[in-house]
Design brief:
Layout: E1 9-12, H1 18-29, E2 33-38, H2 41-53, E3 57-62, H3 68-82, E4 87-90, H4 105-130, E5 135-140, H5 153-175, E6 180-187, H6 193-200, H7 204-216, H8 226-237, E7 248-251
Parallel strand pairs: 1-2, 1-4, 2-3, 4-5, 5-6, 6-7
The structure holds nicotinamide-adenine-dinucleotide.
Nicotinamide-adenine-dinucleotide binds next to helix 1 and helix 6.
């Protein structure tokens, strides 16, 4: 079976940059119709123009994934616009490098809200929208949902929650014969604005030390390109993954193999 997503309508959150944008390009090339969403409307609309120029069917839907009402409105407009929904990628996320002694409760909660609570909101909306005809949900977790990092306690907790939530949702949908597969994706370090932005908030010495430690921990000796991670998203949404649910797809250059 070849890997394609021909005519599947897929909503991607946090799609304007990084992994989300790469996933849109890969999904467009694989034949999917794209509901591109992001809190950054200018970047989201610019991406849609680029996708359409490349021959994809793409439309932009503004969405702050933390806002319950915006989720409802977004789902209704996506389904009204495309006539169906076949896949949702809960991709939006943030990363703040901060040790447990320096982390504030406010900072901790912000990370949980965007990275974890919003995946619940998106998954709930996706199940409600897709349960009559089936579909697939991809929740973008991280290697940091599997192993710990001393400087990422809030991020670790948020991504671990996504990993466990995904398994619960997969079982729930299978129990009810909804035909919805739910899987988590666990990228290692990827060259995106998320990583460069998190490092930019540190002192030069701390940023260099963090980056050096990370790259030294990757058996393949380099970070991933967003385009490499995008292939995992295409696969999990495609019918080639028809027997996968509740699974973890790890794409990390060997990081968690040690
Ligand atoms: P990125 O910062 O490059 O892009 C994230 C996108 O999410 C941006 O377009 C941003 O505008 C959007 N966004 C942020 N808050 C939002 C909100 N409240 N509502 C809607 N959109 C919002 O990040 P990335 O590196 O592409 O990461 C994408 C996902 O992959 C995240 O969940 C991240 O945790 C995960 N991940 C990233 C890496 C990595 O090394 N880059 C590794 C593992 C997992």
């Amino acid at each position: 079976m070849s890997i394609h997503c021909k005519d599947k309508v897929v909503l991607i959150t946090g799609a304007a940059k990084g992994i989300g944008a790469a996933a849109c390009h890969a999904l467009g090339a694989a034949g999917a119709k794209l509901a591109v969403s992001d809190i950054d409307q200018d970047a989201g609309r610019a991406l849609c123009e680029a996708l359409r120029a490349a021959g994809a069917d793409a439309e932009f839907f503004p969405l702050d994934v933390c806002d319950e009402q915006q989720w409802q409105h977004c789902m209704e407009t996506v389904v009204a616009s495309f006539g169906q929904l076949d896949g949702v990628v809960n991709n939006a996320g943030i990363a703040v490098i901060c040790g447990p002694e320096e982390e504030s409760l406010e900072g901790w909660r912000r990370t949980q809200t965007i990275n974890s609570d919003a995946v619940f909101l998106g998954s709930r909306a996706a199940i409600q929208a897709m349960k009559s005809r089936g579909g697939a949900i991809v929740n973008v977790s991280s290697i940091e949902g599997i192993v710990g990092d001393p400087m990422l306690p809030a991020y670790n907790a948020s991504k671990g929650a996504v990993r466990a939530l995904t398994k619960s949702l997969a079982l729930y949908c299978a129990d009810r014969d909804y035909g919805i597969r739910v899987n988590s994706l666990h990228p290692g370090y990827v060259e995106t604005p998320l990583v460069s932005g998190a490092l930019a908030k540190l002192s030069e010495d701390d940023a260099n030390a963090f980056a050096t430690r990370v790259v030294a921990s990757i058996p393949m000796g380099r970070m991933a390109r967003a385009e490499e991670i995008a292939q995992g998203i295409v696969f999990l949404l495609s019918d080639a993954a028809s027997y996968m649910t509740g699974s973890e797809l790890v794409m990390d250059g060997g990081y968690t193999a040690r």
